[in-house]
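Notes from the 1:1 (GR / supervisor)

We went over the backlog. Supervisor wanted to see one worked example end to end before approving the batch request, so GR pasted a single chain during the call. The sequence is below; no edits were made to it. Supervisor asked that the structure be written out right there so they could see what the output format looks like.
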Amino acid sequence: MIGTLSRRTPVIVQGATGRTGSVHVRRMKEFGTNIVAGVSARADVASVEGVPVFPDCRAAAAATGAQVSLLMVPPAGVLSAAQDAIGAGIKLIVTVAEGVPVHDAMRVGRLVRETGATWVGASTPGLAVPGEMKLGFLPNVSLKPGPFGMMSKSGTLSYEVGYRLATLGLGQSIWVGVGGDPVKGVRFPDLLDLFLDDPRTRGILLIGEVGGSEEEDFADAMRRAHAQGRALKPVYALVAGRGAKEGVAMGHAGALTFGNVGTFESKKQRLEAAGARVFATIDDLIDACRAEAGQR
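Structure output shown during the call:
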């Protein structure tokens, strides 16, 4: 579903009438996203930023044909909003709230697996196809059409990488923020096929951090793809948190290391063994991207 997103894709925003929701409905529309409906329990609001508001996703999807929903709801509301969206036939949900209760997140994960839907989040700044559309609050100054597929755990770190690329005249083919919560939907290894199959993508940027095993799992996915005879694309990885202390969460709830699990060295070794290049600084990462793009 992510690979087919464009400015023609009809999008629902759940929580559209809230202060944050209404602001980002406007900003996403200005970027080019085709916001066709909002969803809100408020009976006194008929529209927001010129977009009709419906009481639930079933009514919104029936009226618009939308198959994508951005959930601009608080953590405690994510489960019920996701159930509403998926029950209405929505195929892609994006949840920006951080700190979704673990049990709720597990129930959302089971629901998307059972229905074949895709879930990006929790704790994601969103995703974008620069030049086409964006979902969430990725900053416009960091978005520019270009040859690099980007996936990130850290929002702010990826904003800086995106901004550096954009100022150099480079940019992104597709950008997916997978989020930093410990229980979530799409993870790094799930995105490898997306970028390998995407003709716009020449190189893959992985903006990771210590904690969890996503980077190691992505390395394993690279090795499996190579063993299957697939042509891999250059992978450039930045792993934040080299100095993180064991047992202490650094920033995200998922950025937690124990022993040799989820450490900087573990991720570096596994990624490099699979053929990726791992960098210690943004400057080094950007220099590699410039070289890939033929810039000096």
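Supervisor's comment: The mean pLDDT is 92.
Batch request approved.
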